[in-house]
Design goal:
Blueprint (H helix, E strand, L loop, with lengths): L15 E2 L1 H8 L3 H10 L5 E4 L2 E5 H8 L19 H12 L8
Antiparallel strand pairs: 1-3, 2-3
């Protein structure tokens, strides 16, 4: 068996892939792709009980993560935080049911 790093990179140019096609591109067994879908590591569309299709964006996230744009983080350094309100909410969440405080 050849080393997976020696394999030429396949181009991802179709809108959807079957688990077998994606497995061939990734160099894994088709059941591995199905396990990734079931575990949530890979998103796929279930067309029937035995047929899945994997969208191009999901395939790119798995096979070529460097092509994926990182999530945008918005910082609000001057936003006001009401500490007293947060502490009240936490106390209410952790209060035991049925026990009253006086």
């Amino acid at each position: 068996m050849k080393n997976p790093k020696d394999r030429p990179r396949a181009t991802l140019d179709r809108p959807f892939y079957s688990p077998a096609e994606l497995a061939r591109i990734a160099g894994v067994h088709p059941s591995t792709v199905l396990n990734w879908i079931r575990s949530g590591r890979l998103s796929g569309v279930r067309l029937s009980p035995r047929i899945y299709r994997i969208p191009l964006a999901s395939a790119i996230r798995l096979l070529e993560p460097e092509r994926v744009r990182p999530p945008r983080i918005i910082e609000r350094p001057f936003a006001r935080v009401n500490i007293a309100a947060i502490e009240r909410e936490l106390r209410q969440e952790h209060r035991r049911p049925g026990r009253r405080r006086s």
